[in-house]
Amino acid sequence: MQVRFRLTPLRLLGGVVLLFALTIIGALLVAWSGVYSIAASRGHPGWLNDFLELGMRRSVQTNSALSPPDHLDLDDPSLVQLGAAHFRAGCAPCHAAPGEPINPIFEGMLPTPPRLEDYVDTWEDEDLHWIVYHGLQYAGMPAWSGADREDEVWAVVAFLRRLPELDREGFRALAGRTDLAPSSPETFVKEGRNAAGLTACARCHDDAERDIASSLAPRLSGQSAAYLKLTLEDYRANRRQSGIMEPVAAELTDDQIDQLADYFAGLSPRPPLKGDASDASEMGRDIAENGIPDRGVGACMSCHGGMAEETYPVLAGQSQTYLQNQLRLFRDGVRAETPQAELMSAVAARLEDSEIDAVSAYFAATTPVVRNTPTADTGGEL
Predict the structure, then answer these.
(1) What is the largest CA-CA distance in the chain?
(2) What pLDDT was estimated at residue 175?
């Protein structure tokens, strides 16, 4: 007797379902048995490594679609400088910096963090931004710690574009003052040294000797101790978002925050940055001194002048670029985590681009004054 087998769509579907079920059962049996070694020292078979690499690349390319904002220039030296300073502390510990070896601890990871100067040219700008902001599963690559601060990530992307052309000396010059040796051999023996210089404020900000490294970073000299202390505490408590500042503040004790606040408050305010003084306008002065009453915008100087509330920042002498960026963040609702930030966000939402540019230019061209009002208990932002 001859048996004929006829393939029907229903039988085909049943076969596919059966094959899928057997595959799942087989995978579960392998996992349950423990026969597959997950030791990082074992490495991946070549075929598995290629498969994971393909999946990772296609996932990034499929999901990344955010292009740089129109006002952003990835060749801007200030953007590159800020990205370099963060790379030194946030990325180099795993991926190493030009001319330096990867730390043996991280070299033992699976996969091993790659030397980024060898890979950045294989990605588009939006791909790099997506990776830095979202991180990568199964690779030990963390997501950006500052929620919604995608603007900061573009600074890292701008630097990564420069990375392949940098040698050891070029990188150190760009990344700022990071090689802070302990004060004595005894201190080194007992306390060691943070090779990343994570909490080295002078990587980005001004200090007693030098000005800010990037116009995207705020000047801290001459701000009140109360404001600086509140700001660092907000970063440390995750009340204020920044993938650059939150990791720094998380490393600080209460006593260290007090000392830093007192140090910067004791520095004399710096004069306007070269180039900013020529950009002041009457529109900016009018907004700063009188506000825009018909739109509910108060006078900026009522809160941010030299004699204003101690826990509100003085804006005079900050760079125009920094002020523009912060006001845009407020306007877009990115910086609205605290009650004071909510207030600023509501004000900035009523400003046009031209007004943001004008008032930023005015404050950037204004010489700051030393504050001497008593410390209060309420807080301010910016």
Answers:
(1) 107
(2) 85
290 compared with 180, residue with greater pLDDT:
290
Residue 126, token pair as written in the block: 């939006």
> pTM of the full predicted structure?
0.85
Taking a C-beta distance cutoff of 8 angstroms, is the pair 176, 202 a contact?
Answer: yes
Mark out the alpha helices in the chain (DSSP H runs): 9-33, 46-63, 77-86, 92-95, 104-107, 125-134, 150-162, 168-175, 185-191, 225-236, 245-250, 254-265, 282-290, 301-304, 320-331, 339-348, 353-364
CA distances to 11, 154, 324 from 60, rounded to whole Å, are 37, 16, 31
Instruction: Provide long-range contacts, Cβ within 8 A and 24+ apart, for 161-168.
Output: 161/74, 161/80, 161/120, 161/125, 162/80, 162/84, 163/87, 163/98, 163/116, 163/117, 163/120, 164/117, 164/118, 164/120, 164/121, 166/98, 166/117, 167/98, 167/99, 168/97, 168/98, 168/99, 168/100
Going 154 to 276 to 261 to 172, the CA torsion angle's sign is: positive
**Cβ neighbours, 10 Å, residue 134:** 16
Average pLDDT over residues 34-38: 88
Domains and CATH numbers, the chain: 64-175 (1.10.760.10), 201-364 (1.10.760.10)
Q: Rounded to an integer, what distance in angstroms lies between the CA atom of residue 194 and that of residue 252?
A: 13
**Torsion over CA: 156, 88, 112, 134 (sign):** negative
Is the Cβ–Cβ distance between 92 and 101 less than 8 Å?
A: no
Full DSSP string of 247-313: HHHHT--HHHHHHHHHHHHTSPPPPPPTTGGGG--HHHHHHHHH-BGGGTB--THHHHSTTS-TTS-
- What amino acid is encoded at 194 in this protein? N
